[in-house]
Amino acid sequence: MPANNPEWLTDGVGHVWRPYCQMKTAAPALAVDSTNGVEIHLNDGRILIDGIGSWWTAVHGYNHPHIMAAISAQLAKMPHIMFGGLAHEPAYRLAARLAKLLPGDLNHVFFAESGSVSVEIAMKMAVQYWRNSGATGRTKFLSFLGGYHGDTFATMSICDPEEGMHTIFANVMAAQHVVGLPVDAASTVALAAYLAEYAHEIAAIIVEPLVQGAGGMLMHNPDVLRTLRRLADAHGMLLIFDEIFTGFGRTGTLFAMQSAGVEPDIVTLSKALTGGVLPLSCAVASTRVFAAFWSDDPMAALMHGPTYMANPLGCAAANASLDLFEDGTWQARVSAISAQLTIGLAPCRSLPGVVDVRVLGAIGAVEVDKSIDLKRVASACHAAGCFIRPFGRIVYLTPAYSISEPDLARLCAAIVSSLS
Ligand SMILES: *Cc1c(COP(=O)(O)O)cnc(C)c1O
Question: How far is CA 267 from CA 108, 117, 157, 416, in A?
Answer without folding.
Answer: 10, 13, 18, 36
